[in-house]
Amino acid sequence: MKFLHQPKFSLLQVMLIFASISAIAAISFISFASSPATKNTISPTKKEPLLVRDSLQKDTSALAKLLFSIDTLSESPSLYHGGFGFSLVTLDSNKTIIEYNSHKSLVPASVIKTLCTGVALTKLGPEYQYTTRLQYDGDIDPATKILHGNIYIKGSGDPSLGSDVFGNNIKTILNSWATAIKNAGIDSIQGAIIGDGEYFEQQSIPGGWAWEDMQSSYGIGCSGLAFRENTFDVNVTCKGKTTQASCYPPLPGITLHNQIVVNPLIYKNYLFVSGAPYQNERIIMGEIKSNYSERSNIPDPALCCAYNLLLTLKANKIKMKDSCSTVRNLKLIGKYNWEERKTFYTTYSPSLNKMVGYTNKTSQNFYAETFLKTLGAQKSGYGSTVGGIKEVIGYLKEKEIDLHGFYMVDGSGISRYNSLTAKFLTDLLVTYSKDPIIFPHFYKSLSVAGESGTMYKMAEETIAAGNIHAKSGSMTRVHSYTGYVTTRSGKMLAFSMIINNQGWDYTQTKKQLEKLMILMANLE
């Protein structure tokens, strides 16, 4: 464990240093944290850590308690085969207060969202809005109100389109589009409804996602024309020993292979929906004892969007051919011909800062991946994961953040190919804090211990409640937090902690890190 930038000392000197921690901390915690930049490493002998730990245990200062807890955690048998990285720095000068393995590259899980959300706020702006445009080619006959052409839905990646979260649910959106088409003087359409998601690459799933992630409701790929967060509901109804499955919203050409078993003895219902992007077959597996619903990824969001607009127009008595497609599908069969289009209606997303708040507080993977591709699209006009990562790396280099040990393959943290250091994260948070435009929005987007988001149950009724604003991350054998802590003295610090391949279960790991948060908030 390294702390306060002290040089290497003998065992006796180390003991003397720890014996004096309380006296020094009593003078001033801040002045102690600002001492000259040198290093000290506790030697991995059998006796020394025990002696040091004994000295820390006798010291009642808040700093010594935190040091003791980190040292005890790092020496735990449950971390013998795992990895642990910790970094705590001052926000004003980025001075290291305490660090342990802060330069060790570890799998971060969802704390990597702090990267794409913060960079998106910086490069796109907090008030940035996505647009979805209704367009048509051909001509409208004002006498007959017939459109001799096609209606296009031109997307720009809006992740909120048709989402219940921001009040733009699919019924609201589709009805507003139907009204806009009528207001454009169209009562009949000779052509088709065509979804255009060409603003993003056709590969919706980033590299490095496991198959089981792609089948889960948290592993949803993004697209140039998104619809209902690119998810549909699989609704299963029990009828004796058999089940009946349906989907909402309606999906064109979908085939559901129902392999669900009715089992009244199970603890709770579960479903597993299996299928790949752009493939219309879905296998539904699992066991249920009562009616149940689960969300799955829409095979082709642009086509689903076009199809549901088609159904809505027919319900609103707008005559048309029973036809819908996408620019992608037309290109695949060689039938797409570019025609000049006219935009007659535009749907706007909520502002980026609102969507970033939703993303970080709920750890929404789909939105994070969308922000990353949007960064690439703003640069080149074509949204891709690789292009977005290039923009992120360009930002990091511009801010002179150390990239050693940094590997990024997606924006949400689902991939285990992501890797970064605890020090990287605190460097990033300090950088954000120096930007007066984006920092208030970024800080507000984080979960608050004991109050909101993924941390609303953490550190309840302790000094850390309300004083820890952070992003959490968790997946199998990974647990992480990064954010800001306001100490007892009112000082704001940046911190990060990452654990990989630990022996504790989820609850035990969370309690270990929660304890560190409480001790950080208690610093004088």
Supply database-style keywords.
about 525 residues, alpha+beta, Beta-lactamase, 7-stranded antiparallel beta sheet, 22 strands, about 35% helix, about 25% strand, globular
Entry summary:
The protein is built from 16 helices and 22 strands. The protein is α+β, with helices and mostly antiparallel strands and 524 residues long.
Textual characterization of the structure:
The structure is a single chain. This protein is of the alpha+beta class. It folds into 2 domains: 76-125 and 354-521, DD-peptidase/beta-lactamase superfamily (Beta-lactamase, 3-Layer(aba) Sandwich), CATH 3.40.710; 129-350, no CATH class. Helices cover 33% and strands 23% of the residues. The protein contains 16 helices and 22 strands. It has helices at 11-19, 21-27, 29-33, 48-58, 62-74, 113-124, 170-183, 211-214, 301-315, 327-332, 352-362, 365-380, 385-398, 422-433, 439-445, 506-521, and strands at 2-3, 83-90, 96-100, 131-136, 139-141, 146-148, 151-154, 188-189, 193-196, 231-239, 242-248, 255-262, 270-274, 281-288, 292-297, 319-320, 324-326, 342-348, 447-448, 468-475, 478-486, 492-500. It has a 7-stranded antiparallel beta sheet with strand order 1-3-2-22-21-20-19, sandwiched between helices. Helix 1 (11-19) packs parallel to helix 4, helix 5 (62-74) runs antiparallel to helix 16 (506-521) and helix 6 (113-124) packs antiparallel against helix 11. Mean pLDDT is 90; it is low at 3-51.
